[in-house]
TrEMBL record:
PANTHER family: ATP-DEPENDENT RNA HELICASE (PTHR18934), ATP-DEPENDENT RNA HELICASE DHX35-RELATED (PTHR18934:SF136). GO terms for molecular function: ATP binding; hydrolase activity; RNA binding; RNA helicase activity. It holds the Pfam family HA2_C. Residues 197-355 form the Helicase C-terminal domain. SMART domains: HA2, HELICc. The keyword Repressor does not apply. The keyword Magnesium does not apply. It catalyses: ATP + H2O = ADP + phosphate + H(+). Keywords: ATP-binding, Helicase, Hydrolase, Nucleotide-binding. InterPro entries: DEAD-box_helicase_OB_fold (IPR011709), DNA/RNA_helicase_DEAH_CS (IPR002464), HA2_WH (IPR048333), Helicase-assoc_dom (IPR007502), Helicase_ATP-bd (IPR014001), Helicase_C-like (IPR001650), P-loop_NTPase (IPR027417). This is RNA helicase. It comes from Linum tenue.
DNA sequence: GAGCACTGC
């Protein structure tokens, strides 16, 4: 399977799973010194490979993820790790000199880290002719992947002739698995898609042979409505709905209810799962046959992904509640490939730390737009991470690159050292790094809001996090305390983990872990030092809580989940924006406008802040 | 008065 064909190292195999490929490779290359897999489900794969090789996990075969290093420096020859971990390792060892073979699995999934990694590996292979690269990718991507690495070879032949021949990487293309899925479209656009979904379910149930149904709707509201309509139909003992089991599925649903979806369908029954796009990727039902309703607008890629949920065990059908013309002409092919600015900012700083100075000339498998790149460089410049020559500043730039967080958070941590509030800021940094510390859930907003009020701080959400953290520690990290206070226990566990990691890094950087006790002003200043670019001012009277960003005059509002919602202090900075019908600021803290030119003299000149500074 | 879901250091 690995032998080079005449066209080079482009091989094809039609394996049912990626795993057997990896396993055969292990057998084939057992004699090599050390080599690498990069895969998201790597713990599971690592333990299977260890089992296959008859060795103990953590010895000859090991893995490394963010909070776990299950390897043994003396013994490990096969190591599984995430792309992020490998990028971190490259900061100490840019040529990855310890390793002889690197396999990048699922390269087509193409997270931005994988893209950087591929770009760096392409560079490394010019300096490391002995390094074997194996890239596994979906078939459609294999050719472009091969040419990405081939163009590097041409470059090498034209330029550096003294480096000796280097092998092109083996590109494994893994065929899509599964059975045929028959696609149906509606002939005319439907006026009410929830109603249309319900009718289609009943029609399928009436006319199609056994097999479960999976329906994608946009949100919890529509799911509730559809479940209600179908359940009413079932309860009225209508002939059309006899034997139908109706189950909702969304992330906020309690675990026990989610498990129902995965339980086997009783004989003679048909399960219908009404889901958000949680089921698009994470759901693989171990049941006979899944039929699939999709509601627009999503991307073509997403639509194919959804259709692929059917036909995994035997042929399936997919009913799209939009017209074929709409699919062909209106739907975008790839969704939103736009790289988030903050992500790109992190990447740029990592490349800089790896010594790649010419960022704009870096060869990516798919380049981000130069506008996005320039915006990222601007952010880093304003943070004082890059200097006028776009080089990492010392020490701030190098320190920010050391911290595995969004550079704005890293800058906030560094500022907290001078301001004497690192203890508090590390907690805030950890809390900002996870989705939410509160339990989500409908039908208990009132209790949740009341619970939040018990911790709410006048300064805003960041200080509120501190209050929750304090309470959690005082309770002895009790999960019962979490339940009573509508705090997500699992999220708090993560906060503790991340905080411990940040503490280790902070100590390595020589940051003094001092507490500011009750002085919230220094704490707010530290937040401002990182997030000054997100400063907003409340519009004067009668604008119903409308703020404008200081820099862009963009209209924004405080998100209803914030403790400052309806409080509307005059000046705030936010952590992130979420855009729905409006632009909402999430995690908001009050500031004094005079701190802005202090924190970022290049970014804010005094006069920009206008006459309302007092 | 908002709410699709991951992944990663």
């Amino acid at each position: 399977m690995l032998a080079p064909n005449r066209e080079g190292w482009l091989c094809r195999c039609s394996c049912k799973l990626v795993f057997p490929v990896s396993c055969s490779l292990v057998k084939l290359l057992e004699e090599t010194r050390q080599w690498w897999f990069i895969n998201s489900k790597l713990q599971a794969v690592a333990s299977r490979v260890a089992e296959e090789m008859g060795v103990k996990l953590g010895e000859e075969v090991g893995y490394t993820i963010r909070f776990e290093d299950v390897t043994n420096t003396d013994k490990t020859v096969v190591k599984f790790l995430t792309d992020g971990v490998l990028l971190r390792e490259m900061m100490d060892d840019p040529l990855l000199s310890k390793y002889s073979v690197i396999m990048v699995d699922e390269a087509h999934e193409r997270s931005i880290s994988t893209d950087i990694l591929l770009g760096l590996l392409r560079k490394i292979q010019r300096r490391r002719p002995d390094l074997r690269l194996i890239i596994s990718s979906a078939t459609i991507e294999a050719k472009s992947m091969a040419s990405f690495f081939r163009s590097s070879k041409r470059h090498q032949e034209a330029g550096a002739t003294d480096l000796g021949p280097s092998k092109e990487p083996a590109i494994l293309s893994v065929e899509g698995r599964g059975f045929n899925v028959e696609i149906h479209y509606v002939e005319e656009p439907v006026p009410d898609y929830v109603q249309a979904a319900v009718s289609t379910v009943l029609l399928i149930h009436d006319q199609e042979p056994a097999g479960d149904i999976l329906v994608f709707l946009t949100g919890q509201d529509d799911i509730d409505a559809a479940v209600r309509l179908l359940t009413e139909e079932v309860q009225s003992h209508g002939k059309k709905s006899h034997g139908l089991i109706v189950l909702p599925l969304f992330s906020g649903l309690p675990r026990a209810d989610q498990d129902l979806v995965f339980s086997p369908t009783p004989r003679g029954k048909r399960k219908v799962v009404i889901s958000t796009n949680i089921a698009e990727t994470s759901l693989t039902m171990e049941i006979s046959d899944i039929e699939n309703l999709v509601v627009a607008p999503i991307s073509k890629a997403s639509a194919r992904q959804r259709a692929g949920r059917a036909g995994r065990v035997r042929p399936g059908k997919c009913y799209r509640l939009y017209t074929e013309e709409y699919f062909v002409k209106q739907m975008s092919s790839e969704g939103i490939p736009e790289i988030q600015r903050s992500k790109l900012v992190s990447c740029v700083i990592q490349l800089k730390a790896l010594g790649i100075d010419n960022i704009l000339g870096f060869k990516w498998p798919a380049s981000p737009s130069s506008e996005a790149m320039i915006r990222a460089l601007e952010v880093l410049y304003s943070l004082g991470v890059l200097d006028d020559d776009a080089k990492l500043t010392s020490p701030v730039g190098f320190q920010v690159a050391e911290i595995p967080l969004d550079p704005m958070i890293s800058k906030m941590i560094l500022a907290s050292d001078q301001l004497g509030c690192a203890e508090e800021i590390l907690t805030i940094a950890a809390a900002l790094s996870i989705q939410s510390i509160w339990v989500s859930g409908r039908g208990m907003q009132k209790e949740l809001d009341e619970a939040k009020l018990r911790f709410a701080a006048a300064e805003g959400d960041h200080v509120t996090f501190l209050n929750v953290y304090k309470g959690f520690l005082q309770s002895g990290k009790s999960s019962d305390w979490c339940r009573r206070n509508f705090v997500n226990a699992h999220a708090m566990k993560k906060v503790i983990e991340i905080r411990a990691q940040l503490k280790r890094i902070a100590q390595r950087l020589g940051i003094v872990l001092k507490s500011c006790e009750s002085d919230m002003t220094v704490l707010r200043k530290a937040v401002t030092a990182g997030f000054f670019a997100n400063a907003c001012r409340l519009e004067a009277y009668g604008h119903n809580g409308m703020y404008k960003t200081v820099r862009g005059s963009q209209e924004v509002y405080i998100h209803p989940s914030s403790v400052l919602f309806r409080v509307n202090p005059k000046w705030v900075v936010y952590h992130s924006l979420v855009s729905t019908d409006r632009q909402y600021m999430q995690n908001v803290i009050t500031i004094e406008p005079s701190w802005l030119p202090e924190a970022a003299p290049h970014f804010y000149q005094q006069r920009q802040l206008g006459p309302s500074i007092h």
